[in-house]
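Why do we care about 3D structure at all? Because function follows from shape, and shape follows, mostly, from sequence. That is the central idea of this module. The next example makes it concrete: a single protein chain, its amino acid sequence, and then its structure expressed as C-alpha cells.
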Amino acid sequence: MFKATDLSSRLIINLADGRRIGPVKDMIMNDAGRVEAIVLRGRKRLMGVLRDKDIVVPWPQVKKIGVDAVLVEIEDL
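And the structure:
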C-alpha cells in the first residue's frame, strides 16, 4: 500500500527503453476511488523554457512500485 504523495518522490523508469521519464504530476481516479492512470510531467526542452506534453500512463502499464522507483512499460514515447 502507498500514498499518492509517495509517488512524487520516486523515479519513473520506462522498462521499454530504460529511460527515466518524469516526475508524477497527478493521478486519474475513477468514481470508485481506484487509480486509472498516472500523469507524468513532460520533459524540459529548449534550456528549460518549454516542456513536452504531459504523459498519461494507464494503470495497467505500471508494472512495479518500489521503494526508490516506479517501473512502467510504455512502447510509444
